[in-house]
């Protein structure tokens, strides 16, 4: 697939001046909508995770008319709920030298200098308000005996700034947002549509004015128009089929918006999480993460000798290689995710991996249990240990866990400016669905922070500025009808195709192509191979996929087939992006670009930009947004 | 060596359909599969045969979203304690076993299709008062109110409810007391929950009754099947809060 070069793109919304004043300035310059007018304005929010749930609730509190959509049976199921470890905030409650500036610095550096400074600084500023908000809602964070909040440390940071609720921080924060949302539903400001899936975006007169959705119970195709649309539909890690995402997570909402004109930024930036339970068989439907917080106390190791398949107890201490501690003495087991993942891949490639197929490394708690006692370890990580035991049938208190990297998060997403507005006016994108803030690698405990920062604090201000400049007139009926027809045609085509393979089997094959050729390590050769295989497989999919059942009923086979179709198109763009970026940075490791120690080698001269892709019938068009670093000096990341 | 299983699955086209048990044979099942992966295998086959796959709710498949849930051999989420359906693995079943699979059965949870039920009544119970009224941006500093560790921990234990509805399915009265009590307990143990404590208890209990859930007779089946082990004494606390408010 060939791409062409387009005009450069700029964020024009971030104010100039000292970085610490920019958000204040933007808030002040943003126009306000008076309360009487808010009641007349309609906003659609797609997705009810931390970003979408908090945004819909907050917009409702402000007095807008909100329609919220999710594909699950209730907004409380969104996959933010599965986040385990915690949420970062620059509270400096520990007095260990943390500050807004340090969180900003760590995030820019952790992102391997591929995120915008203005956005990241604002994120660090707002982080402190999130903790206040969550505590006031009754989120039961872990506390010390004195009654104050406890924190722990996380990868990529040397301070303790991660607030947590045992291993269920995402659940507790999401329930806080969900409860705020339900309060607004009761108040009548938010109209909730569960079991509805967005299938297209309505663009009228160049502006986002609504969505086409399918009622997943009746199959009815519905049109919903509004004054602005917010996408909070999450990431696209399921393009790999196996990932830590929920089964339903998909790219359709953002991909359809991309097809309608929203640029897609840095699609190749994928986070591979180092601590997941290894694959056990070819029937596997998903991978399960073991929180990074485990690396606080667990020690990662493999046998020194390749092919050493002795049981753990028979491997003496001097024949164990605690490779993270050895290679990265300063950060040890707490190096950022991309580095820990690649190190695991390297030792497995050397034949030193453990468990079935040699695709695993040990995460050992024996020392922690000796030092702290079993009770203390259980208090901290009990639910994670239980989960591990359920899935593997092995007891991590008596034998080390086996872990292996898995796809976990996507830093790429729809391009947005400082106001979180996409290249389609009136279309705002928040949370994992956008590309902002994390650069080429996200630090642990920063996804929850970004989702809630966007939803509670940033979007509610910036969307007001857009709406205050309206009204934007009647919605073009023709545009609505056209979007609806396109949706119906796709559904009919899938259902009438009497093929011989299921959508899942194609998805699995696509995922394998992506994992093998566009996964932890990418080369020009592997990406070219993927770009050859993907269109072939897609063509076969459209000829040969079989979807049973009807359009006008609950039809899970149809839902899946529609999502897989969009994953094919996205996969291709990911590979184009990965191929064009010949440098290594963060989660994007090009084997051709590494230093003598095998660490990722950036090419700042040629690649210090955001790659924003415009959809084109003749192939994607690349628009570059140059990144300037005024505050954090660009340097080679070192965690040694 | 794979296992061979006989499944008896509840099939129901829609809310109006009467529904019936249908028998399927599934072969060569790996003991390392999850229960839902075993059903995936069955569904892949049904699609290729042109049949309707068995509809079931699921999402995170790691035991936390609360979306999955079926009655397996008469027990909500199956016999393994403190485990959601998605976390149940086939190694806990015998080769050649016969397994019955049914939806949650309770009047306030009407069947949508096959094993999928409508649990929106739970959302309406939360809407009645399962929150603290604190608009975004209005919160004081998080350290302005210390909370005793024991209270925070107990609140957390109640707050881990995943809203799956197993408690209702297991209760002979179809009561939603454990679900409702978990939220009331979580918020009433914390200082932040105090201002609305009375109104919350009354409104949530009344909504629970209005939805048609039955009353609690201390059977305890709810807590026995609860994947998160929400303790039964939360119901006592709910009743105390309700009486306190009614005074």
Automatic annotation (TrEMBL), chain A:
The kind of enzyme this is, by top-level EC class, is oxidoreductase
Q: Does the keyword Zinc-finger apply?
A: no
Active-site annotation: 337
Domain of life (superkingdom): Bacteria
Any one Gene Ontology BP term:
anaerobic respiration
Reaction equation(s) it catalyzes? a quinone + succinate = fumarate + a quinol
Which family is it part of? Belongs to the FAD-dependent oxidoreductase 2 family. FRD/SDH subfamily.
Protein name as catalogued? succinate dehydrogenase
User: From what organism does this protein derive?
Assistant: Streptosporangium carneum
Name the gene behind this protein: sdhA_2
TrEMBL record, chain B:
Q: Which GO terms describe its biological process?
A: aerobic respiration; respiratory electron transport chain
| Keyword list, A-Z | Iron, Iron-sulfur, Metal-binding
> Which segments constitute the 4Fe-4S ferredoxin-type domain?
152-181
Question: What InterPro entries does the record tag this protein with?
Answer: 2Fe-2S_ferredoxin-like_sf, 2Fe2S_fd_BS, 4Fe4S_Fe-S-bd, 4Fe4S_Fe_S_CS, Beta-grasp_dom_sf, Helical_ferredxn, SDH/FRD_Iron-Sulfur, Succ_DH/fum_Rdtase_N
Which GO MF term does the entry hold, naming one?
Answer: metal ion binding
Name the needed cofactors: [3Fe-4S] cluster; [2Fe-2S] cluster
* Pfam families noted in UniProt: Fer2_3, Fer4_8
The text of the family note is: Belongs to the succinate dehydrogenase/fumarate reductase iron-sulfur protein family.
Q: What is this protein called?
A: Succinate dehydrogenase
Native organism? Streptosporangium carneum
Q: What is the lineage of its organism?
A: Bacteria, Bacillati, Actinomycetota, Actinomycetes, Streptosporangiales
């Amino acid at each position: 697939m060939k791409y062409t070069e387009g005009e450069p793109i700029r964020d024009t919304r971030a104010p100039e001046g000292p970085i610490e004043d920019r958000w204040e300035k933007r808030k002040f310059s943003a126009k306000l909508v008076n309360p009487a007018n808010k009641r007349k304005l309609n906003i659609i929010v797609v997705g009810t995770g931390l970003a979408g749930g908090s945004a819909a609730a907050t917009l409702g509190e402000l007095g807008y008319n909100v329609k919220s959509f999710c594909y699950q049976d209730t907004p409380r199921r969104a996959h933010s709920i599965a986040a385990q470890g915690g949420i970062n905030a620059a509270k400096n409650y520990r007095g260990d030298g943390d500050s807004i500036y340090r969180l900003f610095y760590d995030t820019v550096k952790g992102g391997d200098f591929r995120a915008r400074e203005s956005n990241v600084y604002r994120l660090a500023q707002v982080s402190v308000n999130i903790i206040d908000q969550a505590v006031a809602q009754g989120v039961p964070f872990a506390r010390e005996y004195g009654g104050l909040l406890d924190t722990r440390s996380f990868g990529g940071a040397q301070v303790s700034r991660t607030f947590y609720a045992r291993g269920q921080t995402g659940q507790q924060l999401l329930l806080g947002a969900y409860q705020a949302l339900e309060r607004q539903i009761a108040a009548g400001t938010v109209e909730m549509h569960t079991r509805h899936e967005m299938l297209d975006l309505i663009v009228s007169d160049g502006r986002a004015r609504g969505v086409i959705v399918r009622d997943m119970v009746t199959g009815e195709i519905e049109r919903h128009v509004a004054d602005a649309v917010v996408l909070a539909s999450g990431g696209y890690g399921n393009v790999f089929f196996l990932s830590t995402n929920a089964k339903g997570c998909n790219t359709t909402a953002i991909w359809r918006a991309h097809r309608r004109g929203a640029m897609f930024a840095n699609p190749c930036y994928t986070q591979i999480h180092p601590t997941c339970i290894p694959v056990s068989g070819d029937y596997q439907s998903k991978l399960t993460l073991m929180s990074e917080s485990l690396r606080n106390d667990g020690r990662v190791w493999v046998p020194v000798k390749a092919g050493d398949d002795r049981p753990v107890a028979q491997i003496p201490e001097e024949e164990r290689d605690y490779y993270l501690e050895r290679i990265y003495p300063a950060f040890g087991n707490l190096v950022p995710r991309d580095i820990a993942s690649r190190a695991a891949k390297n030792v497995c490639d050397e034949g030193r991996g453990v468990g079935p197929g040699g695709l695993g490394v040990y995460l050992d708690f024996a020392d922690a249990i000796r030092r702290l006692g079993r009770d203390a370890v259980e208090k901290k990580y009990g639910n994670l240990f239980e989960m591990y035991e359920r899935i593997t049938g092995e007891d991590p208190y008596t034998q080390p866990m086996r872990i292996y990297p898995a796809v976990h998060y996507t830093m790429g997403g729809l391009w947005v400016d400082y106001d979180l507005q996409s290249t389609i006016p009136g279309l705002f994108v928040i949370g994992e669905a956008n590309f902002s803030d994390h650069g080429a690698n996200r630090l642990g405990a920063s996804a929850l922070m970004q989702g809630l920062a966007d939803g509670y604090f940033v979007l509610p201000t910036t969307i007001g500025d857009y709406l205050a400049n309206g009204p934007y007139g009647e919605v073009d009926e023709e545009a609505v009808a056209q979007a609806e027809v396109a949706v119906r045609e796709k559904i009919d085509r899938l259902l009438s195709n009497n093929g011989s393979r299921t959508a899942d089997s194609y998805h699995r094959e696509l995922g394998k192509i992506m994992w093998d050729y566009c996964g932890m390590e990418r080369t020009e050769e592997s990406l070219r191979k993927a770009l050859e295989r993907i269109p072939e497989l897609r063509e076969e999919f459209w000829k040969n996929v079989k979807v049973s059942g009807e359009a006008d009923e609950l039809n899970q086979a149809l839902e899946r087939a529609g999502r897989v179709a969009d994953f094919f198109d996205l996969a291709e763009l990911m590979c184009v992006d990965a191929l064009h970026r010949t440098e290594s940075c963060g989660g994007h490791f090009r084997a051709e670009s590494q230093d003598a120690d095998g660490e990722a080698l950036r090419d700042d001269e040629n690649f210090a930009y955001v790659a924003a892709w415009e959809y084109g019938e003749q192939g994607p068009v690349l628009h570059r947004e140059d990144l300037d670093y005024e505050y954090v000096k660009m340097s080679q990341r070192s965690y040694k | 060596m794979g296992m061979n299983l006989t499944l008896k699955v509840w099939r129901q086209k829609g809310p109006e359909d009467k529904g019936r048990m249908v028998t399927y044979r599934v072969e060569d099942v790996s003991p390392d599969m999850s229960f839902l992966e075993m059903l995936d295998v069955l569904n892949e086959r049904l699609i290729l045969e042109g049949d309707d796959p068995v509809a079931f709710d699921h999402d995170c498949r790691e035991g936390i979203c609360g979306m999955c849930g079926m009655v397996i051999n008469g027990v909500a989420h199956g016999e393994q304690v403190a485990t959601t359906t998605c976390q149940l693995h086939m190694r806990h079943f015998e080769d050649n076993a016969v397994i019955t699979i049914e939806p949650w059965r309770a009047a306030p949870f009407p069947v949508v299709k096959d094993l999928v039920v409508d649990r929106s009544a739970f959302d309406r119970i939360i809407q009645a008062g399962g929150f603290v009224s604190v608009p975004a941006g209005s919160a004081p500093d998080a350290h302005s109110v210390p909370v005793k560790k024991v209270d925070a921990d107990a609140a957390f234990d109640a707050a881990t409810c995943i809203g799956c509805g197993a408690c209702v399915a297991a209760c002979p009265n179809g009561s939603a007391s454990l679900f409702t009590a978990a939220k009331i307990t979580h918020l009433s143990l914390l200082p932040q929950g105090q201002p609305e404590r009375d109104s919350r208890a009354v409104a949530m209990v009344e909504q629970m009754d209005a939805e048609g859930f039955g009353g609690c007779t201390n059977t305890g089946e709810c807590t026995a099947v609860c994947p998160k082990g929400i303790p039964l004494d939360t119901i006592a606390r709910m009743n105390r809060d309700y009486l306190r408010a009614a005074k």
